[in-house]
């Protein structure tokens, strides 16, 4: 289902940075109605998310991360390059990015039903989530995590899995989203462990640390 979107998106006027499309700022402005309040999908501690409609009818979500400074740009692009390699039906796909006047913009596929957190705790109080749908969401999450842990090279450990980072499409298919925290610490930390396997390289999102990692620098591969 994502392939046609990627094909259309890549046909837009973009350049490439590694595996990720660099989008011209005027294209973002036009697609979001000059970042109109009417297109705001959500606001968080790290920026505002807008609905965007690009030429050809391609819809996407654009997250604007305020500030960060020039010193963040190289790190930011490296992180995007890594995320651009991740392609799975249960991982929110990164479509492109833009850096303009010190602000950083991330373009994702649009997930029409928003986050699992909103569905559970918003106005509907989970009324649309039948037990069948809830089980499907749980299985989708598990498939996404299995891909990150078992099929990425190096394996990716999310470490900030929560309902607000699970997004749902129009059919309640669930996808894991990666938050961006590049302004505060490196988003990814490369490290080596020799627990449960031979020495292995891992990538982790540096937000929440398991007790075994905090105390002993041991990552348990469960």
TrEMBL record:
GO terms for molecular function: ATP binding; protein serine/threonine kinase activity. It is an enzyme of class 2 (transferase). InterPro entries: Kinase-like_dom_sf, Prot_kinase_dom, Protein_kinase_ATP_BS, Ser-Thr/Tyr_kinase_cat_dom, Ser/Thr_kinase_AS. Keywords: ATP-binding, Kinase, Nucleotide-binding, Serine/threonine-protein kinase, Transferase. Its EC number is 2.7.11.1. It catalyses: L-threonyl-[protein] + ATP = O-phospho-L-threonyl-[protein] + ADP + H(+); L-seryl-[protein] + ATP = O-phospho-L-seryl-[protein] + ADP + H(+). The keyword Cell division does not apply. SUPFAM superfamilies: Protein kinase-like (PK-like). Belongs to the protein kinase superfamily. This is non-specific serine/threonine protein kinase.
């Amino acid at each position: 289902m994502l392939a046609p979107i990627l094909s259309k998106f890549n046909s837009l006027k973009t350049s490439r940075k590694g595996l990720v499309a660099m989008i011209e700022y005027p294209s973002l402005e036009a697609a979001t109605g000059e970042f109109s309040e009417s297109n705001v999908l959500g606001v968080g501690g790290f920026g505002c998310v807008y609905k965007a409609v690009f030429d050809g009818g391609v819809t996407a979500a654009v997250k604007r991360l305020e500030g960060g400074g020039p010193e963040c740009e190289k790190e930011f692009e490296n992180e995007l390059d890594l995320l651009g390699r991740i392609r799975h039906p249960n991982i929110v796909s990164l479509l492109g990015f833009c850096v303009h006047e010190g602000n950083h913009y991330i373009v994702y596929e649009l997930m029409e039903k928003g986050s699992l957190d909103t569905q559970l705790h918003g106005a509907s109080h989970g009324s649309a989530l039948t037990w069948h749908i809830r089980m499907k969401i749980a299985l989708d999450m598990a498939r996404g995590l299995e891909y990150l842990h078992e099929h990425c090279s190096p394996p990716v450990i999310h470490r900030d899995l929560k309902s607000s980072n699970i997004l749902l499409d129009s059919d309640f298919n669930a996808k894991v989203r990666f938050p961006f925290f590049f302004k505060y610490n490196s988003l990814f930390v490369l490290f080596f462990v020799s627990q449960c396997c031979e020495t292995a390289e891992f990538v982790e999102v540096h937000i929440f640390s398991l007790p075994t990692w905090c105390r002993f620098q041991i990552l348990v591969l469960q």
